[in-house]
Here is the input.
Amino acid sequence: MIFKKKPVKHQNIKAEYDKILLDEVNHARTDFHQAQDSETALVDSRVNGHMVQAQTALKKVRFTYLYREAKRRKTVASDLRLYHPVDD
Here is the structure.
């Protein structure tokens, strides 16, 4: 009882942060694909095209950064989440 080991709350911190990183990658991927869809839909309308293109480029850069970070850390997704547009 005296020399009993204390339980470790965060036994594998890397796995926890890898899961968070993968969630961010998946969220960034869906944001990027939605931005691409919005850009193609708004090209024909009279909306400021430069603003839409800038937002799409920003989301692409964010997704690319997160994807490369996950690849650098050799993080593997246990479930593959593909982009599926929501039809309302």
About this structure: The chain is about 60% helix and 0% strand. Residues 21 and 70 are 7 Å apart (CA to CA). The helical segments are 13-42, 49-72. Residues 13-72 form one domain.
